[in-house]
Amino acid sequence: MIVLGTVAGCSQPDPGAQERQALSHKMLRRTAVVEVYQASKESVVNIGATRQEGSDPNVTHTEYASGVVLHPAGYLLTNAHLLRHGGDLAVGFDGDGEYPARLVAVDEQRDLAVLKIEAERRLKPIALGRSQGLMVGERVVTMGNPFGMGLTVGEGIVSAVGRSTKSDFTFFPNMIQTDATTNPGSSGGPLLNVSGEMVGLNTTKKLQADNIAFAIPVDRIRQTLPQVLAVEDRYGFVLGLEVATLGPAEVTAVRPGSPAEAAGVRAGDVVRRLGGEDVRNSLDFHLAMVEAKDDEAIALRVLRDGQFHAVRVTPKRVPLRPAEIAADVEPGLERLAFEGAWQQWPDFGALEPVKVDRVPTFSLGPYAGKDGFAILFRGYVAVPSDGVYAFYVKADEGARMRIGDREVVSCDDERSGKRQRGFVPLGKGKHPIAVEFVEIEGDEGLEVSWHGPGEPRRPIPPKALFRDAP
Questions:
Q1: Which of 48, 185, 202, 366, by CA, is between 20 and 30 Å from 243?
Q2: Using CA of residue 234, residue 187, residue 66, residue 56, what is the dihedral sign?
């Protein structure tokens, strides 16, 4: 009789051994960088800004950059310098199609921009970490879109923290320096730790050197992005609550007399849902607010003393400043010049001008290149329609702008040399405008620009400026 079985001293081949060995080899190859890539690849986007070159509509040029998903509803973060030359924005995911993008908010000085796409699906936000406590020598991973090639991964270490650098578009204080590979198009991509958390936003590099790149610390992004979005000011309504910039969206203050106070929101409440969106942190709160509308109640879910409470808050529309009746005017501005050396911001009303003349726009004229002077421009700015207008001022030593009796922009003291922005809701027509400019010494320059309903971002055109007729 023949017995089928194992022959003594011999073993049958294990049919699963080869598969297990291949899996073991693959697991050995699955490094921390691979894990970071797999966890983050759906949260990193490729961005292109395409513009027409010259007069031929068939000749175009595309600037490439990268970005990260901030919110499932389609909000993305990238660098502002991508937008310097304009162009149509398109966003793509690795292995997916492209989506047109619109600009939500931009801050050139901080080099941050928020875009929005309308995707057919909910997006996966990047995991946000903390940049505080980053260790020099710590391993980091970069992801981005160099030269428009598509999603590309690099790795390196943190070379230094707290480094400052300057590019051709702005000054960057307290940056993260790395030796991770970055190239044109990598800007706006995430700098990630080996846990897959974004600790910085890759932004610039030293062109004259190898492997010296810089990223904006994520803690700074958490703290400044609410100011970049400026949701209530930008859209002209008041909700009336402030939330912590780090960690959960804990209410830190409720403005007296605001809709939030009337609805019963308290300091210490933690906002966990706003409208139809979950709120994990401060950025979620502010991004969800972008879709808010005045006079439409917003449902909030807050955590208070360990229990959830439902609250409904109706934002209040900020009234438009009514236009002035200014019939006896002519084009241009009045320019008053003063001489002196001031240790603090002067009281322009108490100064005696050395010269008064009339100019078509905000021009330093013969005072450019001089030290120890101040100028007051005053007149009217005519806005073409009702709405919220943004005004921008950039000055070397400092400048301030008022619309009527309201100070809209201030870029003096530690903010000198930076472009500052303010919002004001205005009714169609002429509004008093005054710009104070002070020059102590060194370079000088003054830029005054605006944008609003039907008006692109640009210097205020002379046709919109008026002064009282003599």
A1: 202
A2: positive
pLDDT tens figures, 319-358: 999 999 888 999 999 999 999 888 888 899 899 999 999 9
Tokens of 155: 């790795």
Phi, psi of 377 (to 5 degrees): -100, 135
Catalytic residues: 81, 111, 187
Selection from 85, 77, 72 nearest residue 106 by Cα: 77
User: In terms of residues, how long is the chain?
Assistant: 470
**Residue 470 CB partners (closer than 8 Å, separation 6+):** none
Q: Are 39-51+60-117 and 230-317 the same fold in CATH?
A: no
Which pLDDT belongs to residue 211? 85
Residue 449: the pLDDT is 94
Of 379, 380, 374, 382, whose CA–CA distance to 399 is shortest?
A: 374
Instruction: Give the integer Cα–Cα distance in Å for 423 and 416.
Output: 19
Distance CA 429, CA 65 (A): 40
More confident residue, 182 or 190: 190
One-letter amino acid for residue 436 of the chain: E
Class of 230-317 in CATH: mainly beta
- The domain 329-468 belongs to what CATH superfamily? Toxin - Anthrax Protective Antigen;domain 1 (3.90.182.10)
Question: Is residue 175 scored above 60 in pLDDT?
Answer: yes
**Cα–Cα distance for residue pair 376/350, rounded to 1 Å:** 12
* C-alpha distance from residue 243 to each of 113, 226, 232, 247, 405 (Å): 21, 10, 13, 10, 29
**Could you state, in order of their start, the residue ranges of all structural domains in the chain?**
39-51+60-117, 230-317, 329-468
| Fold (topology level) of 39-51+60-117 | Thrombin, subunit H (2.40.10)
Separation between Cα atoms, residue 154 and residue 139, nearest integer Å: 11
Residues 6+ apart with CB under 8 A from 344: none
Query: What residue has token string 């046709």?
Result: 463
Model confidence at 437: pLDDT above 50? yes
Confidence of residue 282 (pLDDT cuts 50, 70, 90): very high
For residues 47 and 26, give the distance between their C-alpha atoms in angstroms, rounded to a whole number.
Answer: 32
